[in-house]
Specification:
alpha+beta; Diaminopimelate Epimerase, Chain A, domain 1; 17% helix; 43% strand; globular
Length: 281
């Protein structure tokens, strides 16, 4: 099986072009094996680039633990780069399908190579039950929760996948690696959740670390950065346009006041290609 390794701001995945070859029979199982950073290719998961009847391509994403995910902001930017540069759809504006939703992506090129992509991430989902969470009420903004003997103030946002945003003085290893996995599986989140620990630098600048559902800490999370942009506005901490510093690089976010869509701009990089062969189940 031919594959391509790509990353968006350090959020790295193994990509399989299912236009050129058959999709793997067991993508969940393959995701676990191929994502292993010691015995596999290594990555935060597996992404299939598939034909779509409604779009230029469809993204099917599987986390490193084999679980399916609804959306990945960094992953979908890399798909746009691949689709453009491999002539699947060589145009400046692309439509990519993911989990039944259609996303518009504008590629930014230099010498016909994609160096950045702007994604319309759509409108955030704020209704508590739709995120989903079990918190009562319509929205979850700065709501107290106790996990592992410690209390946090959480804001919950869905970008097609659930996010729990926590503003802190500093996103330390103790918080991200110690409490992130506990919050991910807390009963308040029936589908588990991604967890963002965020330091506000200024009203237009934040620093984020993410414990990603099904993958552990990742160097970047595009849907998480989008959710943080929303949470910053809802909590009165930030403006609608911010730069988000993640461990793998920076993302530019805007929560547009007119259409209420989140727009994210960031890099997309191809690392290497290879052939994956394995025996047995």
């Amino acid at each position: 099986m031919h594959f391509t390794k790509m990353h968006g701001a350090g959020n790295d995945y193994v990509y399989v072009d299912c236009f050129a070859q058959a999709a793997p029979a067991d993508p969940s199982g393959l995701a676990v094996r191929i994502s292993d950073r010691h015995f596999g290719v290594g990555g935060d998961g597996l992404i299939l680039i598939c034909p779509s009847e409604r779009a230029d391509a469809e993204m099917r994403m599987f986390n490193a633990d084999g679980s399916a995910a609804e959306m990945c902001g960094n992953g979908i930017r890399c798909i746009a780069k691949y689709v453009y540069e491999h002539d699947i759809a060589h145009k400046d504006r692309l439509i990519i399908e993911s989990a039944g939703r259609l996303f518009t992506l504008d590629v930014q090129t230099e010498n016909d190579r994609v160096h950045a992509v702007r994604v319309d991430m759509g409108q955030p989902i704020l209704e508590a039950s739709a995120v989903p969470t079990t918190f009562p009420g319509e929205r979850v903004i700065e709501r107290p929760i106790e996990v592992g003997g410690r209390q946090f103030q959480v804001t919950c946002v869905s970008m097609g996948n659930p996010h729990c945003i926590i503003f802190v003085p500093e996103p330390t290893d103790e918080l991200v690696l110690g409490y992130g996995p506990k919050i991910e599986v807390d009963p308040h989140f029936p589908n588990r959740t991604n967890v963002e620990f965020v330091r506000v630098i200024s009203p237009t600048e934040v620093l984020q670390r993410t414990w990603e559902r099904g993958s552990g800490e990742t160097l970047a999370c595009g849907t998480g950065a989008s959710a943080v942009c929303v949470a910053g506005v809802l909590s009165g901490r930030t403006e609608r346009r911010i730069v988000n510093h993640l461990r793998g690089g920076d993302l530019e976010l805007e929560w547009n006041a007119e259409d209420q869509h989140i727009y994210m701009t960031g890099p997309a990089e191809e690392v290497f290609t290879g052939e994956w062969t394995e025996k047995g189940p």
